[in-house]
Every structure is written in structure tokens, then in C-alpha cells.
Write a structure and sequence with these properties.
Layout lengths: L1 H22 L2 H18 L5 H25 L14 H11 L1 H8 L3 H12 L4 H8 L3 H15 L7 H20 L2 H7 E9 L11 E3 L1 H6 L2 H4 L5 E6 L2 E6 L7 E8 L2 E8 L2 H6 L2 E2 L10
Parallel strand pairs: 1-6
Antiparallel strand pairs: 1-2, 3-4, 3-7, 4-5, 5-6
Helix pairs in contact: 1-2, 1-3, 2-3, 3-6, 3-7, 6-8, 7-8, 9-10
Length: about 290
């Protein structure tokens, strides 16, 4: 048992990363990994331990995702409280390492699509091993991953050069907001910039609209305090920002860029509006694909 435990511990970090990408919750990822350990102790020695554990964790995660989707579809007037054993710090740490925009996009996928995409595109698991997890054929598993890939990697009507320029401007805006750098914000904001916001994004009584670079820059604490949890993403086909503290979309910024400056941005926080947004991944800075 000691040898088996050592072999399992050598796989734990990878399995936790896999489960977190599938579930977006540190607590649930830990539960899935623990369930895999319990099943391993019952199974004893197995051939190709890494592959066996990957399959088991993936099946457990698929069950969790399907259960979660079923609960979401049940009508309810009650807003659920966080689980008693939830680990916000763990979620934030893992979200930092994985990427919040990716977690937001993955959360919009169906359970089978999410499993197929994570296993194949993020962990290079071949489709003949993914198929039994999903109880599908390899061809069907490949189609699921392909469909997910198209949903994850968005397209923009902007020409590549304009898309890259907008990305640079939005990244500069985010860097200034994170650092609370007023002068840097003034450099990236157009003199007549306009900030609109949903009431849900603002303190009680705050103006829904601000005009002028200095007024908007000085008020960035409304968004700036959350900038640590922000990442650039495609929001309805344009370069924008998602704010997802634990991988769950809390705010989105629809940003308008002209030249090298932000001319307007809208802070979207209304749940119905957030749910209607089409959020997809941007590539690494300097690229236009995911």
C-alpha cells in the first residue's frame, strides 16, 4: 500500500490540475482526486497507473458536471449559498495558474464537450482513450472536442492587425488599472472617454455614466480593485475584459478602442446580460488565435 500511495501522490498534482480545468472548483477537484484514490485502493495494482487515474478522474468529473447541469435546469427562487467546505483561496490560486478567461469559456460548454476538450486539447489524451470516458466512439469524441474548440477559440470581424492593436491597448489599460497608476491610465484613456456601467457593478448612488479621462481614471477603483481577477478576452467578437475571481464570470467590460486609446467601456454586471454574452479566448499577446 505504501508503494501504491507513493505512486498516487506522484500523480496528484497532475490529476488536480486536470479536475480543476474540468470543474472550475478547487474543492470539487480535490473531491474527484480523492474518489480516484478510493477506487484505486479497491482496485489494487493496475496497468498504466497514470492512464487509469486519468480515466477515473475524468469519469468522476463528468458525473459532477452532469449533476451540476441538472441542478441548474431545475427552477428555483433560492440563491444557493457556497458549500461549507468551499476553498475560495484554493480556487483563486488555481484560477491564477489556469487562466480565468479559459475557465469562463469552459463553463459555457456542455459536460461531454468540456471533458473531450480538456483531455485532448489541454492534456493530449488520444481520442481512443477519451471515447470510453464519454461512452462514445472515438469519432464522436473527436467531434465533441472539435465543436468545443470552435466555441472556445473565438473569431473577430476585426482584421488581424487591428485585433492585435486593440489587444495591446486593452492590456495597457488592465496593467494601469492593476497598478492604480493614474498617469498611465490617463495615457491610455482618450480625453473624452465615456464609462457606462450596470447599477449592479457600482456602489449605491454612483453615476451610471462618467465622462472625461480624469473622471474615469480617478474612479477606476470601481473596477480597479477587481483588476487582479481580470483578463482580456473576446467579448461578443471584440477585445474586452472578463472579471472572474474564482473562475466564475462576475463582470465583463465591453471596450471601444480608437487608435491607441480607449474611447469608451461598459461594465456589464447584470446577470441576464452576462449570460447573453459570447465570451471566447484571445491568443497570447502578439497572436490573434487561441
Amino acid at each position: 500500500m505504501d508503494v501504491l500511495a507513493e505512486e498516487f501522490e506522484a500523480e496528484r498534482g497532475r490529476l488536480r490540475g486536470l479536475a480543476f480545468r474540468m470543474l472550475g472548483s478547487a474543492a470539487e477537484a480535490d473531491d474527484a482526486v480523492q474518489e480516484a484514490w478510493l477506487r484505486l485502493t479497491r482496485a489494487g495494482s493496475v496497468d498504466n497507473l497514470a492512464a487509469w487515474l486519468t480515466t477515473v478522474v475524468s469519469r468522476v468529473c463528468l458525473d459532477i458536471l452532469r449533476s451540476r447541469k441538472s441542478r441548474r435546469e431545475e427552477p428555483s427562487d433560492v440563491v444557493p449559498e457556497p458549500a461549507a467546505d468551499a476553498d475560495p483561496a484554493g480556487d483563486v490560486e488555481l484560477a491564477d495558474s489556469v487562466g480565468r478567461a479559459l475557465l469562463v469559456v469552459l463553463d459555457a460548454l456542455g459536460p461531454a464537450e468540456r471533458i473531450a476538450f480538456v483531455l485532448h486539447d489541454l492534456f493530449a489524451v488520444p481520442f481512443d482513450r477519451i471515447a470510453p470516458v464519454l461512452d462514445r466512439s472515438p469519432v464522436a469524441a473527436k467531434k465533441l472536442a472539435s465543436r468545443a474548440r470552435h466555441r472556445v477559440r473565438g473569431t473577430s470581424p476585426l482584421p488581424p492587425a487591428d485585433l492585435a492593436r486593440h489587444r495591446r491597448v486593452v492590456d495597457a489599460f488592465l496593467a494601469a488599472a492593476r497598478g492604480g497608476d493614474l498617469e498611465q491610465l490617463l495615457d491610455v484613456l482618450a480625453p473624452d472617454v465615456v464609462r457606462h456601467a450596470d447599477a449592479a457593478a457600482l456602489p449605491a448612488g454612483a453615476a451610471l455614466e462618467r465622462r472625461g479621462a480624469r473622471a474615469v481614471a480617478e474612479e477606476t477603483q470601481v473596477f480597479g480593485k477587481r483588476a487582479r481577477f481580470a483578463e482580456a478576452a473576446l467579448v461578443d467578437g471584440a477585445v474586452g475584459v472578463v472579471v472572474a475571481p474564482r473562475g466564475r464570470l462576475q463582470l465583463a467590460l465591453a471596450v471601444t478602442v480608437d487608435g491607441e486609446r480607449v474611447t469608451a467601456y461598459e461594465v456589464i454586471a447584470d446577470p441576464a446580460r452576462l449570460a447573453a454574452l459570447h465570451v471566447t479566448l484571445l491568443g497570447r499577446p502578439g497572436t490573434t488565435g487561441a
